[in-house]
Structure formats: C-alpha cells, structure tokens
C-alpha cells in the first residue's frame, strides 16, 4: 500500500532526515499577509458573502441554483445528510488535528470520506485529483495518506523528485535547522541528472490564497461601484443646488417687484389725497371770495341807497 516511487526516494518527505521539517507548518507568502492586512483595513459589512468555498472549481449537481458571481457555494440544505457532502474546510480542519507521522486510520478515513463524497456526487476523477493536489499543498504533513488514497482509487500521482523535495523543504521554516553536515550528506551527487520541474510550481497560489485574492477583487469592485454611485450622487446634488439658487433668485426678484408695486400704490394714494386736499382748499377759497364779493355788493347797495336818499 505504501510502495509508491515517492516513498522509496532517499530525499522523499517521508525519509527520517526530513522528520523535523515535516512538523513545521509551511510558511505563507508575503502576498497572503498583504491580502489579510487589506481585508482587515477595509472591513466590509458582509465579507462572509464574498468568500468562495474550497471546492470552487466544481459545481455540485444539487447546487445549480447556488451559483454566484464570486464562486460556487454549497447549499447546506441539499448537500448535507442526503449526499454526505463534506467541504474542504472541514476536511482540512480534521486533518490538521491529526498526527503527522503515524499511519493514522483517522486521517485515512477523513481523506477517503472526502474522495468518496466527491465521486458519489458525480465529480470525475480529474476534478477530485485537482482537489487532492490542493489538499496536499494545504496539509502537506498528510501527503503520504493522500497519495495512498490516490492509489486506492486509481488516480494519477503527481511526479515527485529531488527538485520538488528540495523546493518543498525550502518553503518551510524549520524551528531547529538540521546540521549542515547532515544536510550535505543528504544532497544528491553532482552526477545525478536533474529531472523535469515539479508537478506544482512553488509560486502556484494555494486555494486559501486564491480565495483571498477573490475577496480582495470583490472588495475592490464594490469600492469602485460605491465610488461611481457617490460621484453620481454628488452630480445630482450639484444640479439640485443650482436649481435652488435659481429659485432663490426668482423669489428675490418677485419680492422686489412686490415692493415696487406696493410703493407705487402708496405713492398714487398719497397723490390722490393731496389732490383731494388741494381741491378742498380751492373750494374753501372760492367760497370765501364769493362771500367777500357778496358783502361788498351789499355795502355798495347800501351806499348807493344812502346817496340817493340824500340827493332826494
């Protein structure tokens, strides 16, 4: 069961000389830390809705309606007890809690349950093999168990040689580095012909890194949409402010017209009263003149009568 070519190589990760290296959690690249820092700085209100699942490269047959723009989501109501579907996040959590060196039956059962659930749901072996590749990168300490499951289900094994072993070991950060002399003894001889490149490049992003990138892209898209909406709102507010100023100018003009009309009416009323007062004064003057003329006429008549009497 454990007679694969990778386990027989002197530089295989199951060799005792790499025991301390296998205990160390693989280091995350700097891009992952930057993504996490960006997410912590932005803090969106609904970040959990943007996170795609671990099996985002495959759409479950029962989850056709659960497709979103950010990824493929599992439907808990359909992908649970009826199909026995197990997510990669649960599988990673369970495998991380298992021992790294003992041929743990629990780890073997966890991986076998994960693979069988994928195959029963209709996923082909190519997709399952891709997901097992990602599972090896996320939980490298159970690489032997995962490859045993590959052999059990007749899935292709990723090629492993001295180059991949050295690159995988270089990507880890050992807390207690091995003795340089022992490391020099374990290196291949210069006459050894290098084989082809590793199955997966060290720069290939793992699924958690890819999910972080998708989250950042989704946040950037949401920020761009909110910025566009903010600019449109500012444009509308500017138009409303211009209309308000125009209405205020019209109201001020109408107020001036009303004031002018009121002042004109008051002036006309005053002129009318002055005319009436002037007419009244003239009438009074005429009456006084008429009375004075009548009085003079009476005097003249009396004088004329007195003169006539004297002459008689």
From TrEMBL:
Protein name in UniProt: Uncharacterized protein
Coiled coil ranges: 216-303
Keyword Coiled coil included in the entry's annotation: yes
Extent of Low complexity compositional bias: 181-190
UniProt region (Disordered), positions on chain: 170-209
UniProt entry keywords in alphabetical sequence: Coiled coil
Lineage: superkingdom: Eukaryota
Annotated SUPFAM superfamilies: Tropomyosin
């Amino acid at each position: 069961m454990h007679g694969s070519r990778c386990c027989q190589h002197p530089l295989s990760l199951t060799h005792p000389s790499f025991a301390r290296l296998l205990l160390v959690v693989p280091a995350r690249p700097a891009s992952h830390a930057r993504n996490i820092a960006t997410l912590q700085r932005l803090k969106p209100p609904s970040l959990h809705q943007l996170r795609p699942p671990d099996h985002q490269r495959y759409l479950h047959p029962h989850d056709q309606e659960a497709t979103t723009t950010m990824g493929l989501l599992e439907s808990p109501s359909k992908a649970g007890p009826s199909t026995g579907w197990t997510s990669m996040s649960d599988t990673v959590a369970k495998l991380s809690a298992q021992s790294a060196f003992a041929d743990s039956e629990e780890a073997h059962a966890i991986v076998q349950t994960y693979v069988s659930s994928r195959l029963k749901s209709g996923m082909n072996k190519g997709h399952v093999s891709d997901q097992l590749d990602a599972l090896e990168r996320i939980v490298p300490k159970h690489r032997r168990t995962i490859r045993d499951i590959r052999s059990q289900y007749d899935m292709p094994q990723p090629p492993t040689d001295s180059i991949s072993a050295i690159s995988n070991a270089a990507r880890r950060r050992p807390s207690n580095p091995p003795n340089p002399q022992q490391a020099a003894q374990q290196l291949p001889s210069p006459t050894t012909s290098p084989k082809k490149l590793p199955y997966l490049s060290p720069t290939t992003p793992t699924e958690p890194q890819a999910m972080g990138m998708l989250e950042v892209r989704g946040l950037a898209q949401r920020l761009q949409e909110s910025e566009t909406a903010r600019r449109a709102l500012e444009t509308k507010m500017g138009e409303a402010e211009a209309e308000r100023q125009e209405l205020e100018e019209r109201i001020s003009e109408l107020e001036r017209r009303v004031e002018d009309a009121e002042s004109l009416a008051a002036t006309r009323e005053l002129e009318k009263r002055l005319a009436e007062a002037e007419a009244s004064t003239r009438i009074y003057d005429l009456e006084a003149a008429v009375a004075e003329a009548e009085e003079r006429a009476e005097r003249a008549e009396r004088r004329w009568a007195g003169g006539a009497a004297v002459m008689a």
